[in-house]
Fold these 3 entries.
Entry 1:
Amino acid sequence: MSQIHTLTMPKWGLSMTEGRVDTWLKQEGDPISKGDEVLDVETDKISSSVEAPFSGVLRRVVAKPDETLPVGALLAVVVEGEADEAAIEAVVQRFQAEFVAEGNADQAQGPAPQKAEVAGQLLRWFELGEGGTPLVLVHGFGGDLNNWLFNHPALAAERRVIALDLPGHGESAKALQRGDLGELAETVLALLDHLGITKAHLAGHSMGGAVCLNIARMAPQRVASLSLIASVGLGEHINGQYLQGFVAAANRNALKPHMVQLFADPALVTRQMLEDMLKFKRLEGVDGALRQLASGLAEGDTQRHDLRHVLAQQPALVIWGGKDAIIPASHAEGLDVEVLLVPEAGHMVQMEAAEAVNRSMLAFLRSA
Amino acid sequence: MSNQLSTEQLLHAYEVMRTIRAFEERLHVEFATGEIPGFVHLYAGEEASAAGVMAHLRDSDCIASNHRGHGHCIAKGVDVYGMMAEIYGKKTGVCGGKGGSMHIADLGKGMLGANGIVGAGAPLVAGAALAARLKGRDDVAVVFFGDGGSNEGAVFEAMNMAAIMKLPCIFVAENNGYAEATASNWSVACKHIADRAAGFGMPGVTIDGFDFFAVHEAAGAAVERARIGQGPSLVEVKLTRYYGHFEGDAQTYRAPDEVKNLRETRDCLMQFRDKTTRAGWLSVAQLDAIDARIEDLIEDAVQRAKADPKPQPADLLTDVYVAYP
Amino acid sequence: MARKISYQQAINEALAQEMRRDESVFIIGEDVAGGAGAPGEDDAWGGVLGVTKGLYHQFPGRVLDAPLSELGYVGAAVGAATQGLRPVCELMFVDFAGCCLDQILNQAAKFRYMFGGKAVTPLVMRTMYGAGLRAAAQHSQMLTSLWTHIPGLKVVCPSSPYDAKGLLIQAIRDNDPVIFCEHKLLYSLQGEVPEEVYSVPFGEANYLRDGDDVTLVTYGRMVHVALEAANNLARQGIDCEVLDLRTTSPLDEDSILESVEKTGRLVVIDEANPRCSVATDISALVAQKAFAALKGPIEMVTAPHTPVPFSDALEDLYIPDAAKVEAAVRKVIDAKRSAA
C-alpha cells in the first residue's frame, strides 16, 4: 500500500505567515525517515530546518531555493511505497488548486492561544494536542510561549501540551508581586487548577526550569516528570552580564550583543528578532518585572537558588547545549538523571537543535 | 475715593512702583553707556498699572507680558538682581543670559514671560486659565498688551475663546498712546480699546492709568469676576511711557513737552505720595525710607550684574530640550 | 500580538490609554468632538476624520472643541502646557500652520531656551498631512521639514499602526513640544498593535528590510512606497535596506550612517518639497560623514518644488511612487558600474 504525503511550509510561532526556502538538505530520490531534516526555511524572525513528519522517498521538490511561500504552501511530495509520476502530479495539481494562503482565507486558522484571568491576573497560554498526562512548557527569562515554536507541535503529537506566558512576559499581565520564582511557580499551579489538571509533566527552559523545580518542591504530587533545559537552579554560575545587559538594553544596537549570546549561531539573531524583543521590552511594566526577576535569580555571576535537591523525587531529563554562554553545560554533570548534551547548540538549545530535543523529550515522556 | 487697602498693602504698592521706576531710570542711564547688549523697552511712567493689577494676584495666578515687561516682572515678584543680570546678558540672570530683557520669565512666580511677539501672550494666558479650570483651582490669568497689541488677531482669538469658554482671564490693554511710532488714536478704530469687549460679550472698562487706586479698583473687580467663574474682562489702562519705544528712540513723533507735562502733572508715583500722605494713610518718612532702600537695591543689582560672569560656550547648546537622544 | 487595528484606531487607543493614566492629558481642537453648542449629538464627528471619536464621552470635560481660531487654541494649549498639563491639540491639516505658527515657532519651541531651561512645555500637536486625497494645495502639504528646522521641537511621523500608538504615547509623556504628523491615507492601514500600553522611543529608526545593495531612507507614508519598490527590486536581484526614520527630530544619524557604510548607496524618499528638506538634510549628512563609503551619487525621490495640485492627473505625478524609487535605485547602481 502506498501513501503520497505533502510536505508543507510549517507555521513556527503565532505570527509566522510565510517562509523563505533556503537550502534543500535532501534531494529528489533520497529516502527520508520521520524526523529527518529535509530543508532549511528562513522567516523574518528565525531560521530552522523543516522535519519530515513521515517517512518515505522524496519524490518531488516543489519549492525552489529563495522562494518565499505562505504557511501551508506545498514544499515537496514524499511517497511511502510506490506511486507513478502521474499520480504525484495529480496530487500537486489538486493541492495547488485548493490551497488558500492563511492571509487570504479570512477565517480563524487552527488553534489560537487563550487568555483568561487566572488567580487574579491575566494569563495567556496555548494548547496543542490531546490526551495523556498533559505537558506544560515554561519559558525562560525574557521569553514567551513562542520559545517553544519548534517543539510544541512535535511534542503535541502524543499528548496535550500547554505553553504559557509567565507573568511579566509575552501577553500575560506584566505586574509581579514578589517577583520571585515562588510567585511564578504559584502562577503555573493556578493555571493547572484553572485547566482542571491535577498532574502534569513539566518542561522548563532556563529560568522556566527553576520554576518547574519550584513547583516540584511545592507540590510534588502534581508533577509527573521534569524536563529541564539549560535550567537555572542546577549549579552556581550564570552569566550576570547577560542578565543585566539584556534588562538595560533599550534599543537594537544595545540589545544585539546580549541576544547573540543566546545562540551558538549568532546569525540566528535577526533584526526582526531584535525588533520583536524590543516590542516586548517597550510594554509598560516589562522593565520593572524583568529587573525584579533578574535580581531574584542571581547576584553578579552567582545564582541565588540551588534546587538540585528537588531532583530525586520525579523522573527528570536534563538537556543542555554545549555552547551555552548563559548557564554553563557543566551544570549537567554529576546529576543522577538522564542527560542530553547537544554539543553544537547554545542556550536556546530547544530552538537550535529542535529535532534532537524533541526526539529526546518524546522518548523520555513516553517512559516517564 | 475711600481707601480699602491696609498700610502694608499701600507700602507694598509704593515699593513696587518705586522699584520699577528706579530700575527703569537706572537702565536708561546704564544703557547709554553701551554696556547693555541689544535693546530695552522701558516701562517708566506705567507703574500704576502693573502695581494695581498685581496687587490682586498670588504666585499661582499667571501673567503673560510683552516686550515692555520689566514692570510686570517686578510687580509679579521676579528677583530684581536676577532681572538686572539677565538684561546684562549674564549667566546669573533669571534666564541664564539666554533670554534678555524681552524674555524674562519666572514660572515659579506665575510669570509666563515677557514676550517679543506682540499679542502672543493672550492665547497663552487663555491656556493658563484653562489649565486652572481643568485642575479645579480658582487661579486666574492676566495678559498685558499695549494699544499696538490690541490690534493683533491673537488677542481677538483669545478674547473670543476666553469668552465662550468663560475662562478666568483678564485682558489688560495698557494704552500708552503709541505702538512704536504710530499713535493709537489713529491705529485703533474704536474710541476706546475697551469698547471692543462688547464684541466678545465681556465687560470692558477704560481706566486712568496714572491713578494707582483707579487701576487697583478696576482690576480688583475683573480678577474677582474671573475667580468666581464669571469669565473674562477687558481693562484698558490709559497711561504714558516716559521714554521711547526702545532706548535710543528720539520720539520725534511726540508733541514737544508732552512727556514733560505729563511727568510734572500726572506722574503715578507723585499722585500716590500726595494722596496717601495728604489722607494720613502713610507718612513721608515711610515713603522716603522706601525710596532710599530701593536706591540701594538697584545700585547693588547693577554692581553685581556688571561683575557677574557671562555664560560659558557650553551654555550655547543646553536648554533646547528637556531631553534629546 | 495577533490583534490588528487601524492606524486611526491606534491613535485613538493611545489617546484613551494616556488620558486614563494621566488626568493632566486633555484634547483641544476643531471638532475633536464636534457638535459643541449645536442642537444635535455631542461627539458628532470625533475629529474631521473620526480619529478622536468616543473620547468625549469617555473623558468628560477633557475633549474640548475649539472655535476656528488656530492661533487662539494652539496658543492656549501651549499656555496650558506651561502650567503642568499635557495638552494634545489638533491642527486639522498641517497647512493651517500658517494660522498658528507663532505659538509653535516663537513660543512653545523657544520657551525652554529663552527662559534658561526653566520652562517645560509638554505639548503635542497632532496634525494631518499628505497628498493623495485630491484635497488640493491647502489641505495636502507635508511640512515636516519646516518643523524639523525649528530647534526645540520634536517631529514624529509614524508609518504604521504599531508606531502610531507607541510614538504618540511617547509624545504625550515627552516633556518637550512634539509635532505629531499623521498621513490621511494611512488612517485605514491595518497592523498588529499590542493592547497593552507601550512607548516607542524617539530618535530610533526602524529597519524594515535588510539589504546589501542600496539604503532607502524614508518616513511617513513613503515608507510603504519604498517597501513596494524594494520588493520589486528584490525580484530583479537588488537588495534594498529600508530605514524608517520614525522621527525627523531627533534624527537617528547613527542608523543612517551605519546602513550606508554597509551598502555604499543612498536613496532618500520624501513626500515633502525638495528645497531645504529632510531629504536634502540626510543627503548632506551622508555626504559629510560617510563620503568614503559611497559607491555612487546620492539620489532623492521627492515631490517637485510645486504646491500640491488638485487634478488627479497632476497629483499622481506629484507624489513619489515605487516606479520613481526603482528608477532612482537603478541609477545609483548603474553609476557604480560605469565608474568601475
Entry 2:
Amino acid sequence: MGFYFIQFLTGLASASSLFLIAAGMSIIFGVTRILNFAHGSLYMLGAYISYWLVTTLTPGPLGFWLAVLAAATVVGLVGIVIETGLLRRIYQAPELFQLIATFGVILIISDITRFIWGETDLVGPRAPGLDGAIEIFGHSLPEYDIAMIVLGPLVLGIIWLIFHRTRWGTLVRAATQDREMVGALGVNQAFLFTSVFFLGAFLAGLGGAAQIPKGGADLLMDLNVIAEAFVIVVIGGMGSILGAFLAAVIIGELNAFGILVFPQMTLVLMFAVMAIVLLVRPWGLLGRPEAVSRAPGEAPEPPLQRADKAVRCLFTATILLLLLVPLFSSDFILVILIDIFIFVLFAVSLHFIMGPGGLVSFGHAAYYGLGAYGTALLVHYLGTPMEFALIAAPIIAAIGALVFGWFSVRLSGVYFAMLTLAFAQITWSVVFQWNDFTYGDDGILNIWPSAWLSSKTAYYYFALILSLVCVYILRRTLFTPFGYITRAGRDSPLRADAIGINVQRQQWLAFIFAGAFAGLAGSIYVFSKGSVFPDQVAIPQSIDGLMMVLLGGVKTLTGPIVGAAAFTALTDWLSSNEVWFWRSILGAIILALVILFPQGIVGFVRDKFRPPEERG
Amino acid sequence: MSTVLIANGLKKSFGGVKAVDDVSFEVEAGHLLAMIGPNGAGKTTCFNLLNGQLKPDEGSVTLEGQQLVGLTPRQIWRLGVGRTFQITATFGSMTVLENVQMALLSHNQKNMAIRAVVSNLYVDEAMALLERVGMVEQSGRACSILAYGDLKRVELAVALGNEPRLLLMDEPTAGMAPRERIELMELTAEIVRERNISVLFTEHDMDVVFGHADEVIVLNRGQLIAKGAPDDVRNDAQVQEIYLGSGSTFAA
C-alpha cells in the first residue's frame, strides 16, 4: 500500500516538470498557432543554465531557487530572440513550414549546448535544504519530490491569476479563442505574440531548471521530452492550461504505474492514450475545437504537366551517367549514391501523401521502419531469402499504414501531423523497448543480400533500378484517376464530396500506397547496410523526409528527387567529414529554406522559366 | 408534368431555434424553382436538408420516389443531384478541362483506376460540357487564375457531369456583376429546358428570381409562407410585408 502511495507521489513529481513545458507549449500554440518543436530545446537550455549557475555559485536554499528562476528568465529571453528573429516571419506560412523551422532551431540549440557544456551527461547537484528524504508508510521519498509536487499547482495557480486578473491575460485568452478578431480590435499583436512566447519559453526553462536535482542535464533531453510534451498538449487540449495540468498528471501517473505492469511498454502506453484521445476528442480533454481561420488559403500549385523535352533529356543524361559511375568511382561514392537512391524513393513516397494528398505526415519513418524491421526480422528469425523479404517489406509497411492510416485520415492539419507522429513513436518504442524480439538499441545485424548482389557494384545497380522503377510508378500514378481524385480531395473537399468522391477513403488508400513504397525503401536500406537500428524509425528520420521534399519543392514532381539527392549528399558529407557545427549548418539551411526559398530548388527554377500566368 | 423532388414536412431545430419548421414543396421536372426569404429565414438549412449535409428531425425528401433522408451527400449525388455553391468550389490545381473530367471520372466509378492516365479519359465528353457553358477557349487554363464569373460556369459544367435530374444552386449569382448574373441565369435556364433538368436555387437578387424562376417559394422564420408563380408571389401581401415592412409604423 505504502509502496503504491510513494509511486503515486513520484508520478505527481514528474508530472510537474512535464506540466511546465507542456503549459508553455500550449500557451504559445493557443495564441500563435505555432506548434513549437524547439520547446524541448528550451527545456534543455533551462536545465544546462541552472546546472551551470548552481554548480558555479553553490548557493544556499533561497539562492538555489533564485538560480532556477534566473535560468528560466534567460530561456525566456532566448524565446524572444527566436520569436522576433524567426517565427514572426513565418506566421502566415503553412503549418508544415513552421514545424520544420522550429526543428531547425532544435539543431542549432543542440549544437550550441554541445559546444558550451560538452557531450557528457551532467548529474544534477542536490538542492540545498531539500537533499534528504522523508519517510511515508515505511518508504522513503526524496524531499525534492515534495517540492516538485508543490511547484506544479503553484505555477498553475499563478498562470491562472495572470490570465484571469490582468488585461494582458484576458487578451491572451481572447487570442486563443480567435486571434484574428483580437487583431481586428486593434490589439498590438506583435507585442502580444512576443510576450506570450517569452512566457512559454520561461515555463519550459523553469521546467528544465527545476528538474536538475532529479534528472540532471543531457543532450538527448530535447527530443526525449518534446515527444512527451506533445502528447500532454494534445491530450489536454491545445491552448488549455488546466488541460495541460490534467494531462501531465495522467501521463506522470501512467508512467509511474505503467512501469510496474508493462515495463517494456511504457512509451507505447503514453502514445496509445494520445491516439485514443485524438480519435474521441480531437481537440483534447479540455480544449475547444479550433475556430475556422478566415485567412485566405495557400495558392494552389499549377496544373500537372508531363515533363517537357529539356527535363526528359536531363533525366536521361543523369540516368546514363549513374549507369556509368561504377566504372570509374570508389566504393565510397557508390555507398553514398545507394543512400541517395533509397532516400529518393522515401522522399517521393512521402511527397505522394503530403503534396497531392495534402496530408503532412510527421511519421513517415514508421512505414520505412516497418519495411526495414520487417525485412531484418524475417531474415534473422526465419532465414527468409532476400528476394522474398524485399517483396514482404512493402506489404508489412502497407499493413501498418492501413491500420495507422485508418485513424489518421480522420484528422487534418496539425492534428493529423501529431497523430502520425504518435504512431511513428509507438512503432519506435516497440522496436526500442522490446529487447527480446528486436534487440532494442543494439539493432539487428548481419542482414546481407543474396550472393548475386554481394558486390557493391551489383547492389548499386540493383538499388538504382528498383528506385527508378518505383519512382516512375509513383509519378505515373499521379497522372492516373487515382492520383487526380486524391488531389481533388485536397484542393476542395467540399467540391470533391459534392461530386461523389469519398475523400477520406481516397486519402486512406493514398496513405497505404505511399507507405508501401516507404517500406520498400527501408528494406533496400537494410540490405545495403547489413543492419537496422531503432534510429530508422525515430523522429529525425521522419523530419529528414520532410526536409528532402521541402528542399526540392513540395509543389513540384521532381522536387522530392532533387531534394532527397541534395539533402542526402549534404548530410553524408557534413557528418562524414566531421565538419564543425554540422547540425547548426543544417539548421541554418532549414531556416533559410523556410524563410527565403519556400518554393524549394525545383520550384525556384521552374518559376524562373515559366510565364507568370502559369505560376501557382 | 411529373414531379422530381418532393419535400414533405421538413423540420430541423438547433437548440431551441426552429430553423426549418414543417416545410413542404415539390419541384416539377424542367422547372426552375426559386427559394427566397430574408436573412435567417432558413434557406441554407433547408438546402442542407435536401443535399444530405444535415439530417432533418422530421419529414422526408424523395427524388423520383427514392428516399434521400439518411443518405450522404455523395450518395445523393450518385442518384442524380448536382450542386453549385454560393462561393465557388473548384479544384484550383487543375485546369478547367480537368475539373470537368473529375466529375465524369467519379460518375463513371473510375476513382481508383491506376492504369489509364487522366489526359486520355472523357476528354470529348468534358469538352462537350465546356462547349455548352462557353468555356472551351479556356479549357487549358488553371482554375486558380480564372475570373469569378468564369468559375461559376465551370462549376455549372462540373455539376452537369453526372447527368443530373436536379440541380441545387445556392445563390448561383452571388458575387457577380449584374450583367454576368443575367447571362449565367439565361444559360442555366436554356440548359435546364434542353435537358429537362429541374433546378432549385436560392437567390437574393429579385431581378434574377422574377426574371427566370418558373415558380417561387418564400420562407420566413423557418416556415413556408407563400408559393406559386412569380407574379402571384410578388403580389402576396404577406411577402410584401416581410420584404418591405407592413408600413404600419408609417401609417400610425
Entry 3:
Amino acid sequence: MNGGKTSAPPQGVPAAGRGINAGRIVKYAAIALALFWSLAPVYWMLATSFKTELEATRIDPTLIPVDPTLANYIGLGGQSLPFFSFFFNSVVSCLATAVIAVVIATPAAYALSRARFRLRGPVGYSVLLFRMLPLVVMLAPLYLLLLNARLLDSLAGLVVGFTTFGLPFAVWMMKSFIDAVPIEIEEAARIDGYPRWQILLRVVTPLILPGLLTTGTFVFMEAWNNLIYPLTFMTTMDKQTLPAALVLTFTGQFKTDWGGMMAASTVTTLPLMIAFFAVQRSMVRGLTSGAVAGA
Amino acid sequence: MFRLSRMARRSAFVASTILALGMAATASHAADKVTLTFANWADAEGATRPGIQAVIAAFEKENPDIEIKSEAISFSEIARQLVLRVRSGNPPDVAEVSGNDTILLALTGKVEPIDNYLDAATRAEVKPSSLEGLSYKGKLVAFPWTQAPAGLWYDKAVMQKAGLDPENPPKTIDELMKDLAAVKKSQPDVIPLGLDTTNRAFSLISNWPWMKTFGADPFAENGATSDAMKKYLSWMRDLAKKGYIDPGRKIGEFRPLIAQDKVAFLWDQVLLQGVIQSTNKMTDADFYKHYGVATQPAGASGKPYSFEGGHQLVMFSDSKHQEAAWKFIKYLATSPYATENYTLSYEASLTPLEKAPTDALAKKLDTPVFNAFSRKIMPTVTAVPYGPRFAPGATAIMAGVQQAVTGDMPIDQIAASIQQNLGN
Amino acid sequence: MAATAAQRSTKAPARKNAERVPWIDWMVLPTVGVLAVVIGYPVIYTLVLSTTKYNMLDMVPPRYIGGGNYEHLLSDPIFWISLKNTAVYTFGSVIISSLLGLALALLTESLTGWRFRSVRALLLTPWAVPFVVVAFLFRYMYLQNGGVINAVLLDLGLIDKPVLWLNNSALALPAIMAANIWAMMPFFFLLLSAALAAIPNEVIESARIDKAGTWSMVFHIKLPFLKSALFISSLLMIISNFNDFAKIWAMTQGGPGYSTTTLVIYVYRLAFENFDFGYASAIGVVWLVLLLVFALVYLRALKVNP
C-alpha cells in the first residue's frame, strides 16, 4: 500500500520531482494491479463463454479461445429451457421488490427521522435487527405462510420473500438520506400549513431522489443475488429466477458444461452491469449527499 | 391437522366419493378429462427435456381422457419440494424420484403402495431384482423406471499409452493400483481414476460399493471405526496422496475429460456413453473400440459391487386420480415407445423390463456396453441402506472421506469423528 | 452526523409536552404491518419450533421438549465449527475488503475526469457479477486440473504441482474468501470514494496550508471523515455475509470435511436435507441472539441512533 503521494497537489509542496514520480509509478502500478485483479476473472468468464465444449474442459487451459465460437450463446437461446422466462422472472420480481420496498419504506423512514412518538426507538431498532435475521432460519415458516396465502410458486410470493430483507434495508438507508436533509427546508411548507405527507411528497422526496435510486438499486441487487428464496419458493422450473435457474440447469445429472455455464453467467451479469453503470453517477451523488457518506 | 384419524379419512373418502359422483352426474363432461400433475426433473434439464415431452405427448395421444401437467423441478431440489408439499397436503399425482429420496418420501406415509395397482402381468414383465430395495414396511412404494448401475469405465487409448493391456481392465484393487501407477507415470496430465468425492447424498451412494468391497459398513454399530472402514479411508488417502484422484470434482465434471482421454478409469453409470459421444462426436463403432466398461475391481472382501442409480416413479395417497396415475407410471416404465424413445435414448439407462418388448429394441440393447451392464454389472449391485439416517449420515461420512482425501488428520481420528457425527 | 441536528431541533418541544407524545406514527404503520407478517410471524414460529422435536419426515406433529435442542447444541461439535467458520469468513472478508477498498479509494482520489470515471467503472465491475456466477466462475478457475489459476502459477514456476484450492481443508475457506473479497471490494470502494468526495474542500485546503504531510493528511484528516461511512458499510456487509449462502454452497457445499461449513450451510442441511426443523430452529434462535448482541455492541460503539 504505497499510495503515499496520493494527494500530493500538483501545484505545490516543495517535494523533489523524482519523489513524486516514484510515488506516481507506485500508485499507477497499484491501480493497474487492482484493475487486473478486478477484470481478470471477468475476462475468464467471457473467454470461456466463447470456447467450444472440449476447449473449455481442457486440462491445460488456453488463455485465448483457439477456436472461438458463439455456440454457447446460441445454445442458450435454442435450448429447450426458457432462458428468456428466467430473465423476465428475475427482472420483474427484483424490480417489484425494489419499488415496493422504497415506497413503503420512505414514509416510515421519514417518520423515524422527523416525527416524535414513543415507540420510535423500538421501531427503529427492530427494523435494523430484522435486517440481520438469518434468512435460512425463516425459510420454513415463510414457506408455510406463502402456502397458506396461496402465493407459493408465484412471482408475488417471491416478492413477499424478498421484502423480508429489502424493506428493513430500505427503511434504514432512506432514513439516513432523510436525516441529511436540513429540517429548515421543511419549515416554510410547515408554516404554510401543508400536511406532513405533502411535505414528504413535495419537499423532501425531490431532494432525496438520488437516495431513492441508490436504495432501490441496492435492494434490487440484493434480490437479484438471492438464491435461497427462489430455490425454495418456486417449484416450477419455468417460473425460476435467473441465478436459481443457473444453479439448477448447469449442475444437472449429466455433465458440467463450463462453456454453456459461462455464457449463461455472462448473460446473467450483463443486464446488472448495464443497469449499474446507468445509475452509477446518481448513486455516487446519492451516497455523497446521504448520511452514509457524510460524517 | 396432519394426523387425520383413519375414521375421519374414511368418512372424508366416502363424502368426497358421494360429492364426486354427484358432480359427475351433473357435469359429466367435466369429469371426462383427468389432469395428472407429474413432478420430475427430466423436464428441468435441457438434455432430457425434449425426450420426456415427446413421451408425455405420446401418452396423451393414446389416452385422450388424461392430461399430463409436467412440473419441472431440478434433481437437487425435488426431494425437499416433495416432502414439503406432501407435508402441506399439496403433493403431485406422480413424481420421479431416486435413491434415498424414494425411501424418504415413503417415510412420510403419504406414498400410495404400488401393490394396490400392480397387476400380475406387469409384475411378470419386470426383472424381480428391479423391485428390490423399493419396499418400505413390506409395501412396494415405488416402481422402477430406469436402471443405471455404475461400472468401471476405462479409456483404452490411455491404457495402451501406459503400456497396459486395453482389453484387460483391473480385476482387483491391487491390480488397479498398479494400473493407476502406470498411467500416472506415463501420462502425468491424465487423472488416473475418476471418483466423485463431493459432499452430497449421491456421493455416498456412488462410493458405497467401494466401502463395501473393503467390507466396510459405516452405518453398522461402530461401523465407522471398524478396521474395514479405516482400511477404506486409508486407501482413499493413498489415492489422493499419489495423485490418482482429483478430489472435489463432481461426476459430471469428469465426463467431458474422459471424452478427451484425460481420465483413465471412471466410476460411472451407463449414461456416460451418451455424454462422451455428445462431447467428442464419436460414432458407436469408434466408441466401443475406444472405451470399455467392467465390474468394480474387488477389494479385501474379494467381491465386486455396484449401486443402482436409476430413477423410480411414485404416486401419492392424496392423489384423486390414482388409476390414471398408475396408467401413466406403467406407460413410462414399460411401454415400448417410452423405453425406446426415453429410457434408452435420452436417459441412456437400462430398462427394468425382463426382456425387450420388441425385436428392434432387443437389437438396440445388444451393444457391448448394455451387455456388460446388464449381464456382468447388474448382478453385483448391492443395496444402499436408505432410510431416515441416510441423508444426515451421508453428510457425516462424506465429510470424513473428504478429510481423509484432503487433509492430514490421522485416519483413526477421522473414523472417530465420523462415528461421533453419525451418532448425532 | 446530520441526524443529530435534526434530532436536536425536535427534542426541545418534545420535553415540554411529553404527555402528548403519541405512541406511534401512522407513517411507520405500513412498514410495521408488513414486517410483522413477513418477519414477526416466522420469528415467533421459529422460537416455538426450537423448543420442539420436529422432523418433517415423520408424520407426527411437533413435540415439546423444552430446552432439549439447546442442550444438544452445546455438545454438537459441528455447531461450534460452523460458528467459528462464520466468524472467520464474515469478519475476515469484510475487514480485508474494506481495507482494500479504502486503499483504492485513496489511490484513485487524485484521478479526475474521464480517467477517474473509467477506472471507477472498471473497478466496480465485479460488483455487478451475481453471487452465483462468482461462485461458478471461481470454482472453475480453482479446479485442481484444468483450472486457470493453477495453470498460470505452474507456467510461471511459482508452484511445482497443482494446488488443491477448494479441496484442502486449510485452503478452502481462504479460497472462498478471496472470491468473496473480489466481489465485495467494489462496494467499499464505491462508498468510500463517495465519502472522500464529500469531504468539504475547506478542510483539505486548510490542512494543506498547515503543510500536513501525505500520511498525516490521510490519518488525521481523511480517515476521521470516513469513519462513519466505513463503519456503516462494514455493518451492511457483515450482515450480508452472515447470510451468504450462494458462494459457499455452489463452491464447496461446506466441505471438505466441515472446513467451510458456516451456520447458513449447517442450518440449511439440517432443515432441508435432514428435515430436522426443531434443531435447525434452535440453532437459528441462538444465531439470532448472537447477532442481536453483536449489533447492539456495534451500534453502541458507533454511537449511531438507528
